[in-house]
Design brief:
heterodimer; A: alpha+beta; Alpha-Beta Plaits; Dna Ligase, domain 1; six-stranded mixed β-sheet; B: mainly beta; 7 strands
Chain lengths: ~450, ~100
């Protein structure tokens, strides 16, 4: 949908919600038996490389990017999980959607990282701690399925406000880290400095000092620039800002200027939210007035189909839709429908309209019919609609088809008889050590 | 193809492919295979195409094998090996386009 920022959707105060290795955390959410075990995700589309590795597996020396053969050699009990990007997108979208209950200014950055504009929330909710607690509560309700009823001890929450506040949530394991600061970068640094399940609030008065103490790895650097800075002996942001801005510009160009500004705290990027989707409207002018019920139904169906095909609708389900029509002799007629279960399929959207059409038929022939999709819900049960682009749409569609096929096979044979061949030691001279099968569970 | 092991499935369990299967091999006086018996089925060997040795992984689970690639009288290409550690003959691979044996997995 359109994402034109408006003044009301810009916020300087930012809360960064960060869930490191989000795909792995999402898998653990789906399969709690994986928690605390050496787990690795297979690279999407490649069955021989690991994309994400759990901290437990890292203790064995397993790293992301490693081949399955190497990883199994280092960590024999390693559990391999196939990537399910559609599920990760879905989970992340659900989190984002839920966070709009706290603030409408939401700016997703990457999978597992989202910035929330919190200007003005203090008036509505209370102190930054209260806002953070509200965010945490909403995240909990999506992640664990129900709101957290446990509270931290009052003694802890009622500590006098200090410039840098670091608090621990309850004992329940939360994968997210929250950081509050002025601007996106500082809030991200605060979140990254906060241990899992905790938050860090950086007051404006000490924000600059807080940033200067950080290591250069918090900067958005590519590996090459990072190495160059390291070789120049620049290890903290203080080291960076101790050099003139101009020298950075000479050495690293535009990127260098941006890095210097971020490090010194002079560049504070605000959070820019996205507007709610605009209605999608499709209409048809009829040369001959329509009065037959089946012909009207057919015309509405075609218009819904056309509206659903609008690229602005990708990633959204329709919650409400409206049919308006101009009648002969200047009168008009309209129908509104709220879809109980938001959908993106024509049949689902058409059904409630047809019931209303039968109850309140138009009083004359229709000369122009307009269908407007007016309210939307992000994410969808129809997997391909999660897609942000055509590639992920196709990927989601394939996943969906595979899931159906696997489900059918499992129903018929009582076992998931589909496996994936992965390379273990493809170069091995011993044939049985070259490849292996893992259960295919899309 | 991979045969169903009929064992309870566990998620993400690794199952090695091409696991060798124990077979009986009759050899001539020079040690060359003349026939193989697999699951009670006897197949005569028409030709020994190739032979090679694999000695590997002496540092953990030593492997010492003599591989023989043979062509059976019905035209199937079969790879068998003699295991010098566990003593015996094993079927490693059969060409599915010709064989009537089951490919071990």
């Amino acid at each position: 949908m359109n994402s034109v920022p408006t003044a009301s959707l810009v916020s300087n105060n930012s809360v960064c919600v960060w869930i490191p290795t989000f795909p792995l955390r999402a898998e653990e959410r789906r399969r709690p038996e994986l928690v605390g075990k050496p787990t690795a995700l297979l690279e999407l589309g490649k069955t021989k490389q690991l994309s994400h590795v759990s901290s437990y597996a890292k203790r064995f020396g397993v790293k992301a990017g490693m081949s399955v053969g190497q990883a199994i050699g280092l960590c024999p009990p390693l559990i391999l999980v196939e990537s399910d990007p559609v599920y990760y997108d879905e989970t992340f979208n659900r989190l984002i959607h839920r966070l709009t209950r706290v603030t409408p200014v939401i700016e997703p950055d990457e999978l597992g990282r989202v910035y929330m504009g919190v200007d003005g929330t203090e008036r509505l909710i209370g102190s930054p701690k209260d806002v953070i607690r509200r965010i945490d509560k909403n995240l909990l309700s999506v992640w664990f399925g129900k709101p957290n009823t446990k509270r931290s001890s009052k003694r802890r929450w009622n500590k006098p406000d200090i410039a840098l506040q670091q608090q621990q949530f309850t004992e329940r394991h939360r994968p997210w880290r929250l950081g509050w600061a002025d601007g996106k970068f500082a809030s991200w640094v605060a979140a990254s400095k906060s241990p899992a399940g905790q938050f860090l609030i950086v007051d404006k008065t000490i924000q600059q000092e807080f940033l200067l103490k950080q290591r250069i790895r918090v900067l958005p650097l590519n590996a090459d620039t990072h190495q160059r800075l390291w070789q120049l002996g620049l290890k903290t942001l203080r080291d960076v800002t101790s050099l003139p801005r101009q020298s950075f510009q000479i050495q690293f160009g535009k990127e260098g200027v941006k890095l210097w500004d971020l490090a010194s705290g002079t560049h504070r990027e605000p959070v820019i939210g996205k507007e709610n989707p605009e209605p999608i409207v499709e209409s048809i002018h009829l040369a001959t007035p329509l009065s037959d019920r089946s012909l009207i139904a057919n015309a509405i169906e075609r218009l819904i189909e056309r509206a659903l095909r609008n690229p602005r609708r990708a990633g959204w389900r329709v919650r409400t839709l409206q049919v308006r029509a101009e009648l002969e002799y200047g009168a008009s007629w309209s129908l509104n429908a709220n879809v109980k279960d938001p959908s993106a399929t024509t049949a689902h959207l058409l059904a409630p309209l047809m019931v209303k059409l039968d109850r309140t038929p138009p009083a004359g022939g229709l000369t122009e019919i307009t269908v407007a999709l007016t309210a939307f819900t992000p994410g969808t049960k129809e997997l391909q609609l999660f897609a942000r682009d055509s590639v992920s749409s196709a990927r989601a569609g394939r996943r969906r088809a595979l899931r159906w096929a696997v489900r059918e096979i499992r129903t018929r044979l009582s076992k998931p008889m589909i496996h994936h061949i992965i390379e273990i030691h493809p170069w091995s001279r011993i044939p049985e050590r070259r490849y292996a099968l893992i259960d295919f569970d899309p | 193809m991979v045969t169903n092991p009929r064992t309870a499935l566990r998620p993400h369990r690794l199952r090695p492919l091409n696991l060798p299967q124990k077979i009986e091999v009759r050899t001539d006086t020079s040690g060359k295979p003349t026939s193989i018996v697999h699951r009670g089925q006897v197949r005569m060997i028409a030709l020994v195409r190739d032979e090679w040795r694999v000695n590997d992984e002496w540092w953990r689970d030593p492997v010492a094998r003599r591989y023989v690639e043979i062509i059976s009288t019905d035209g199937a290409r079969i790879v068998i090996y003699e295991d010098f550690i566990h003593h015996g003959w094993f079927l490693q691979y059969t060409d599915t386009s010709h064989n009537t044996l089951t490919n071990p997995s």
